[in-house]
Design goal:
about 140 residues, mainly alpha, Cytochrome Bc1 Complex, Chain D, domain 2, 2 domains, binds heme C, metal-binding, transmembrane helix, Cytochrome C, electron transfer activity
Amino acid sequence: MFHVNDLFVKSTSSIGAEEKETLLHGLRNLLIISAIACLLIVFFILNNKPPDPYVEKSLNLNGAIEDGNQLFRMNCVGCHGISAQGLVGPELNKVTEELNDKQIINQVINGLTPPMPSFEMDPQSMADLLAYLHSLNN
Ligand code: HEC
């Protein structure tokens, strides 16, 4: 049978636990939200680095595939193979699908991964080289 007293006792004893849980949920959500906010701020700062003028210039120029091919033969085939099939260095036929242009430019000019040397070339040559690398995965 139904007793009013039972209901009263039950509901008062469970309110404390429920409130605690809501409070914990609230705190957890707050933590998650602030963590996400921190990450967003970090990404925002990283993405707003002043653009590298050399990279920007190279990206804005139209490259000529044939000139890029010549540059590649002179500078890169020794390690990446005559048809970019890979030798000492990895094959580059699909590299434009794996790396974006900025990453490729950095790889070429910074020599961050020995034994690949760093290359100095004018932005037009870089644009040509990029055009050639893009032509490889067609
Ligand atoms: C002395 C040998 C050598 C020469 C010359 C060389 N590379 Fe490399 N390259 C490498 C090696 C080794 C790697 C792999 C580095 C690594 O594993 O981190 C590499 C990596 C790369 C990558 C990154 C590939 C990837 O999948 O991450 C690119 C792009 C690249 N080279 C482009 C070039 C271009 C363009 C030239 C010519 C201008 C060139 N390389 C000349 C040895 C060379």
